[in-house]
Amino acid sequence: MNNHAINPLDGRYFDKTRTLAPFFSEQALMKYRVMMEVEYLIALSALHKTALRKFTLNEEKIIRNLYENFNDASYKEIKEEEAVTNHDVKAVEYFIKEKLSKTSLKDCIEWVHFGLTSEDTNNISYALILSDSLEKEIIPIISKIISELNTFAKKYKDLPMLARTHGQSASPTTFGKEFKVFEERLKSQLSQLKNQKISAKINGATGNYNALNIAYPKIDWTNFSKNFINSFNKIRTSKLAPNLITTQIEPHDSYIELFDTLKRINYIMIDFNQDIWRYISDGWVDQKTKEGEIGSSTMPHKINPIDFENSEGNLGLANALFEFYARKLPISRLQRDLSDSTVQRSFGTAFGHSYLAYISLLKGLSKITVNEIKIKEDLMAHPEVITEAIQTILRREGIKMPYEKLKTLARGKVLTLKDIHEFINTLEVSEKIKKELLKITPENYTGLAGKLASK
Asked: Burial level of 435, CB count in 10 A (0-12/13-18/19+)?
């Protein structure tokens, strides 16, 4: 933890969010830039159509070592160079050249960053960062949340529970089925997240391969760029997709698609956090106590739902950034302006708040127990919820205006099960139908909830 950090992700919460540092830190960005540049150099060598000679396997190993063993010292060298050049990508280029100048590759150093613009390096680096962070950290933790929801759904699939629509008592459901709803919603969005491709380009200063084409007009540079970008997909499940027609910048549209999916996931989790908060408030869900922990500085009895509240707050922060990205990143003046650069550096903040929220949600789930007695008590305190069932059966039997009869009985009134039974016994229906109606209780009027929760 940095005691002087102005961002809580790097201060108070760093122990929880440091797992994202290998992707979103400044040092990580430099490493990914080195990765892109050296893989490009190797691809040029393998093309066999330029004056760049073919590298030996050992030379390829030497080149890849620059990012595979990238460390604090490597980062420091680049930042020292950047202090002179005031250009971070050029500093990466000079770093690579300086390292290769001490090897058998010293005759090849002017091929580093050959025919490229800094945005070629940057956009591919960010595409790789997003791909790796999704695959290694974000998708696994979302999957874990889905798994936890499934556990609750199965365990409590048959626990009848009072539903509320518009905040009022409504047709019963089961506790497990309500967890199943969130599980299914998240699974749907996660599937989209896994299949999201991240666009990348490598086509020069205004997107026309000008420098590359003037040097080697007979080479199919569009095909080269396509193959180069696809080469990164051999080792990752979150795929990159070549974008062949751009300005200087890759327009970031695929980023927005990705962020919108994450935003939907986060909003679903906000919805869940708020529902659990209400269940805790109603006493339907209890929280495990922890020795020495304090809920309130003045009220000794308190066990606050702080994990779900923390999750909700961080999800909101993350989504505020994702929404800003959607407004900002698709726009760039003419062929290029730099206003997207500083915005992209904040990706780690949005991912960090999301990740922190996911951790908090999982922690909250690990601390709750379901108060089955209280849930059933509150359900049975609202026998009016079976009036829907009664009027539906009466419709089936051809009784006139059954809805209106039940409305007169129940709307705005406090009913007991006895009141409802007395009403049933006054109905002009057969004894068989009366027995059918009298068997209905709030506990057994849950429809297919149990089966749905088991799917």
From this structure: exposed
Burial of 213 (0-12, 13-18, 19+ CB in 10 A): middle
Measured at the CA of 440, the angle between CA 435 and CA 441, to 5 degrees, comes to: 140
d(CA 118, CA 33): 10
Task: With a cut of 90, say whether residue 301 has pLDDT above it.
Answer: no
List of domains in the chain? 14-114 (1.10.275.10), 129-197+250-371 (1.20.200.10), 382-454 (1.10.40.30)
- The set of catalytic residues is 166, 296
**Each residue's pLDDT tens digit, 105-116:** 999 999 999 999
∠ Cα 312 313 314 (to 5°) = 95
How do residues 260-288 score in pLDDT, each as one tens digit? 999 999 999 999 999 999 999 999 999 98
Rounded to whole angstroms, the maximal C-alpha distance in the chain is 101
Q: Give the pairing of strands 198-200 and 240-242.
A: parallel
Confidence of residue 5 (pLDDT cuts 50, 70, 90): confident
